[in-house]
Backbone:
């Protein structure tokens, strides 16, 4: 697993990009985020706000294992930074709440900042620091490399409904992995993929619906998702699956 992504705490320790953190009771926007790339994700075990560098000046690969709710929440928060969002999916209806949240352009048509595409290779916008790019690959449990991150300020996020042995390459090459609750068999597979200690993969079976493990090089962080009232209007209450 690459070492280029770090979770940071409220003091900014471990950050690889500038971060701006606020307390959860101040999060009244659809997508609270910080400087370009720093994204508020949730709270630590002591209630401290935790942020993650998602959009960064290097090509970045993320894996989200679990329900669609978390992936859509990350999309909303990336959108709030002004990022382009390209969603390659075989279930476009599931992503309509994110598309609607982007609003309309001056011509009255849906905003082009969020685009739904088929699961097939296609040209991508050129990302910049002022307009980074989040590509969401929602292609099942064994994703193809249709949109690998190749440019600075491009992040490709692979949404895996569950772990599969054939997804080990995608998972092990990720800079950041976000894991929701897994059944025991899936947790044991995670232990094999990432060489987790028994108490670590057992922890994966005990997570609540609003809890996530963020994993990276030399990093294992337990956090509780925070969802704003505006996000709840778009996505509903926090949940494990969809």
Residues:
């Amino acid at each position: 697993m690459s070492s280029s992504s770090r979770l940071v705490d409220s003091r900014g320790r471990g950050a690889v990009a500038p971060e701006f953190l606020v307390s959860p009771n101040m999060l009244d926007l659809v997508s609270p985020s910080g400087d370009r790339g720093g994204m508020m994700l949730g709270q630590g075990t002591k209630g401290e706000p935790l942020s993650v560098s998602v959009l960064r000046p290097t090509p970045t690969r993320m894996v989200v294992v679990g329900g669609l709710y978390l992936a859509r929440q990350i999309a909303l928060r990336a959108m709030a930074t002004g990022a382009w969002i390209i969603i390659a999916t075989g279930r476009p209806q599931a992503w309509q709440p994110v598309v609607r949240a982007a609003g309309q352009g001056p011509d009255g048509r849906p905003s082009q900042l969020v685009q739904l595409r088929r699961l097939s290779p296609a040209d991508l916008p050129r990302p910049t620091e002022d307009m980074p790019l989040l590509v969401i690959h929602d292609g099942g449990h064994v994703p193809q490399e249709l949109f690998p991150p190749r440019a600075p300020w491009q992040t490709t996020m692979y949404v895996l409904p569950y772990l599969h042995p054939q997804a080990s390459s995608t998972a092990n090459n990720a800079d950041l992995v976000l894991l929701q609750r897994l059944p025991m068999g899936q947790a044991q597979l995670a232990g094999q993929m990432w060489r987790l200690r028994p108490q670590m993969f057992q922890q994966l079976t005990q997570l609540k619906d609003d809890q996530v493990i963020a994993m990276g090089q030399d990093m294992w962080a337990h956090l509780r998702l925070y969802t704003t009232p505006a996000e709840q209007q778009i996505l509903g209450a926090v949940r494990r699956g969809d």
